[in-house]
Please model this.
Amino acid sequence: MENCVVSRKLRVLLVEDHEEDAKLLLRHLRRAPYEVESRRVETQEQMRGALEAPWDLVLCDYSLPRFSALAAITVLQTSGLDLPFIIVSGVVGEEAAVAAMKAGAHDFLLKDKLDRLVPAIERELKEAEGRRERRRAEADRARLIDELQAALAKVKTLSGLLPICAWCKKIRDDEGYWNDLATYISAHSDAKFSHGICPECRRLHFPASGNGGKAEKSAPLAGADRPLSSMHPSTPKGVGS
Model:
C-alpha cells in the first residue's frame, strides 16, 4: 500500500514584484507538501488591503520598485497582526539583513538557497502559535484576577461602613437605593435568614400568646435603663421639619 501524504493548508501573503519568483516559492511549498492559498502584492496599499483576509505568514522580497521589506514590516506591525515575516531575496548585504531582523523580520533567506525555506516556515509557525498561546494564557490570567478582585470587593462590602437608617434600619446601597436589612445582607453575603419573633416583639405585638411554654432570653439593650419613649420617639428628629 502506498503511503498517503496529507497536505497541510498554508495561507501565504507574497510581497513580490516578480511573478516567476513567486511561482518558484510556491513550488517549494507545495513539495513540502502544503496546500497553498496565496496572494501576491507589490505595494503598500495592496498589502494593507490583503491583510484584511486571514494569513498564516508573509514571504517578502527585500526590495521592490514601489515597496520594500522594511516598509512591509511596518505595515504588518501597524495592523496589529502577529504573523511570521520571512524575507526571501537576492543578494543583500549583511548590514541590510541585520537591519531587517532588528526591524521585526523573523528570518532572512536568499532565493538561491531555498532549501531553508520550509524548515524556516515550520519553525516560525510554531513560534507564532507559542506566542498566541502565551497571550491566551495571559488573557485568562488577567480575567481570573479581575473576577477574584470583584469577588473580594463584594466580600469587603459588608466589612466597611454601611449607611443605615437609624429609624427603619434600611441600608443604602452604592446606587443610592434603600434596601431592607435582610435583603441587603443576603445579596452581599452568603448569609441566609430564618425569620422568627424575639420575646420583646412577642410581648409587644402578641401579648395574649405568651411564650408557648418556652423560656427565651434576649440580649440586654444599650440604654435599657432609659424610658422607652426616649428611645423610640414617635417622629425621628429631622423628619418632616
Observations:
- Residues 218-241 have pLDDT under 50 and may be disordered.
- The helical segments are 19-30, 44-50, 69-79, 94-103, 117-157, 181-188, 199-205, 228-231.
- The beta strands are 8-15, 34-41, 57-60, 63-64, 67-68, 85-89, 107-110, 171-172, 178-179.
